[in-house]
Amino acid sequence: MQGLMQDWPLLCHTILDHAARVHGEQEIVTRSIEGPITRSTFRTVRHNALRVAQALARDGHSVSDRVATLAWNTDKHMEVWYGAMGIGGIYHTLNPRLFPEQIAWIINHAEDSILFTDLTFVPIVAAIADKIPSVRKVVVLTDEANMPQTEFGAVSYEAFLDGTDGDYVWTKVDENSASGMCYTSGTTGNPKGVVYSHRSNVLHSMMATPLDSLGFAANETVLPIVPMFHANAWGIAHAAPMNGTKMVMPGAGMDGESVFELLSTEKITFSAAVPTVWLGLLQYLEETGKDLPDLKRVVIGGSACPRFMTETLEGKYGVEVRHAWGMTEMSPLGSLGALKPKYSGLPMSEQLDIKEKQGFAPYGVEMKITDDEDNEQPWDGETFGRLKVRGPAVASGYYGGDGVEQFDEDGWFDTGDVAHIDPQGYMQITDRSKDVIKSGGEWISSIELENLAAAHPDLVEAAVIGIAHPKWDERPLLVVIPKEGKSPSKEDILGFMDGKIAKWWMPDDVAFVEEIPHTATGKIQKTTLREQFADYTLPTA
Ligand code: AMP
Q1: Around Cβ 349, how many Cβ atoms within 10 Å?
Q2: DSSP 3-state helix, strand, coil percentages of the chain (rounded to 5)?
Q3: Distance CA 541, CA 539 (A)
Q4: Which one-letter DSSP state was computed for residue 322?
């Protein structure tokens, strides 16, 4: 027997329609690229998104066309996303932190038909304008008064929307049609295109909503510091309007002072960003002696959240830290580290042990860990394995058929991460499969060593890579940046780590550097670091 329920397609425009109808006055506040703080509402954003759709249709764009954005988090960027989806098109975020040639490569691979950009990135577009033949128009997200002269004939957002009135009916497409695109950061090889559907985005927003997840509600105010170009905005651009959550968009201001200003003036209740952003905020708070009275919760992910960060935010500032793991390929939520009730009475240090893990999967994410022969491994909190996932918001392939080897016939996607899972379902990433250090046939987790070393009071950052070793195959080298004015010795640092890890995990050497290379999404770039230390000989070799 079939169920007798309506087949109501899960289309992204329904989210914005709902927001405008039920939470129409709810605000979207933006630190505009031109400078001033501007205030809009879900009702206005929907109206402008309809105008974007109308203008795109006027210019001949239609179903399945890729609409590229190279832009900060602003209300206008939201309008373009929803306008693009509204014609049955596909928003395609570009990461401005990539090299211009990489950006051009991605635009050409996706064959974007139009590009929306911010004033900040006009020079990047100028550098690639003659190398992206599929792009028929460039729109700068500003008004006529602020519009610069460009050699590539860009128009302002104001001019682009001129003559539209929002009298447009969203184009109806199948819920499995593409709605968004984001390329992986491509730390190895070329970036690969992830293609979200309307259905996956709607379901993912529902997965992001519960309190144990990101936690959206009409009485919350979210500051999405994570850029919309990083892994589908961590779902916030859909989940906030779905729940009528007030949005505060930081524009280009991600430094400690700018973030603090918005946190306090807009009384932000929760926020999401990579660890580096929180590092900047903590430094600012320490320097100024300021406090965080309104902030209840921060979601930290993208790379491992260091223990001291959780300890400081929770212990000193009373802000709950929600450690999260995810991937562009997972829309991106994979797991979140809310504390289960059985742990709430534990002393702080034991709670921190749990919060160092990346947390448990929300409904909609299935996980398993396997050995190299694809045998499933137990959830005992110790046995490492390749982390594989599946679910309605997990990629089933890459655009153009790239990377087929990461997907198997049972629908499991090999994340490329190495992890263990404990009996309570808390997963802990121990490495990228390419970064794990193979010493004498056993695996050493580079991330665990990095977290431990980074807790040393005289260090800013730590990275661990495997260096070739004649006897053990590989041994760990610890690369560190000391804090300004501090010069800890190698013995100091190794002494600090001694007793906290197995003896054979201890790095064979410590290298002091001024800088550790990072990817465009803030992760330590191990490939570059390995190149830098390619000729390094360990004292034990
Ligand atoms: P991206 O698609 O750029 O967000 O990168 C996804 C990758 O970032 C994952 O496969 C992990 O290797 C890494 N990652 C994300 N969140 C975390 C986390 N909380 N801890 C450790 N690694 C993480």
Answers
A1: 9
A2: 30, 25, 45
A3: 6
A4: E
Q: Which segment of 297-306, 394-403, 412-421, 432-441 scores lowest on mean pLDDT?
A: 432-441
Q: What is the pLDDT of residue 442?
A: 79
Strands 297-300 and 320-326: parallel
End-to-end CA distance of the chain: 69
Q: Which atom of ligand 1 is nearest to the CA of 521?
A: 3
Cβ(301) – ligand 1 distance below 6 Å: yes
- Those residues whose C-beta lies under 8 Å from the C-beta of residue 213, and which sit 6 or more positions away, are 207, 333, 336, 338, 362
Mutate to test the pocket of ligand 1, among 226, 276, 325, 365 (most ligand atoms within 8 A of CB): 325
Which among 95, 228, 388, 417 is the best mutation to test ligand 1's pocket, defined by most ligand atoms within 8 Å of the CB?
Answer: 417
pTM of the model: 0.90
Q: Which of 438, 483, 486, 500 is catalytic?
A: 438
The region of weakest confidence among 183-187, 280-284, 411-415 is 183-187
Averaged pLDDT for residues 110-115? 98
Apex 459 CA angle, 458 and 460, nearest 5: 130
**Ligand 1 close to Cβ of residue 220 (< 6 A):** no
Measured in Å, residue 325 CA sits from the centre of ligand 1 at 6
CA distance 170 to 86: 5
Q: Rounded to whole angstroms, what are the CA distances from 86 to 61, 107, 111, 170, 195?
A: 11, 21, 19, 5, 16
**Overall average pLDDT of the 183-212 stretch:** 91
Residue 137 vs residues 93, 115, 170: alpha-carbon distances, Å: 16, 6, 22
- Edge-first strand order for the sheet with 193-197 is 155-156, 137-140, 114-117, 66-70, 90-93, 178-183, 193-197
> In a 3-state reduction of DSSP, which class is residue 376?
strand
Ligand 1 atom nearest 447 alpha carbon: 21
- In angstroms, what CA-CA distances link 540 with 57, 193, 480, 497? 66, 43, 19, 18
Q: How far is the CA of 235 from the centre of ligand 1 (A)?
A: 15
Centre of ligand 1 from the C-alpha of residue 283, in Å: 24
CB count in 10 Å sphere of residue 424: 13
Residue 185, ligand 1, Cβ within 6 A? yes
| Segment 477-500, tens digit of pLDDT | 999 999 999 999 999 999 999 999
Q: Is 438 assigned a catalytic role?
A: yes
Give the closest residue (by CA) to ligand 1 atom 20: 304
Q: Give catalytic status of residue 443 as yes or no.
A: yes
Backbone φ and ψ of 479, nearest 5°: -110, 125
